[in-house]
Design brief:
By secondary structure, the chain is α+β, with helices and mostly antiparallel strands. The chain is built from one helix and seven strands, in the order αβββββββ. A three-stranded antiparallel sheet has the order 5-6-7, with no helix packed on it. A two-stranded antiparallel ribbon has the order 1-4. The protein has a two-stranded antiparallel sheet with strand order 2-3.
Length: 111
């Protein structure tokens, strides 16, 4: 096998390893239910005045990748200043997500 062929095979194996790692991470993600009957706004930052990114359908479940403090919001699950990052640049108030806790349930968002 030529050197170029070996390098191509090694690169393909690296790509497969990364894909498998991403699949395992997605499979292990915990999804939390949004409050019943709520079509939840997803914001660019942890504030109700931050740009609206999208609205989640009633009955949605969300993964929480990290959490941060932001605007204090009251909702079905209490009053809190915790915001859940469900994807990069996408935040929802924890007051609308049933995590089973009044505090942080995962790592804090960096930056």
């Amino acid at each position: 096998m030529a050197v170029e062929e070996v390098e191509e095979v090694e690169e393909a194996n690296k790509v497969e390893d990364v894909a498998e790692g991403a699949e395992a991470l997605a499979a292990s993600a915990v999804y939390y239910p949004v409050a019943p009957g709520v079509q939840l706004n997803v914001r660019r930052g942890p504030s109700s005045t931050s740009q609206l990114v999208k609205k989640l359908a009633v009955g949605s479940r969300v993964p929480i990748r990290c959490q941060t403090r932001g605007e204090r919001v009251s909702g079905p699950y209490g009053t809190t200043d915790i915001w859940d990052s469900i994807a990069p640049g996408q935040y929802v108030s924890d007051a609308y997500v049933k995590t089973g806790s009044d505090g942080f349930v995962t790592v804090r968002c960096s930056g």
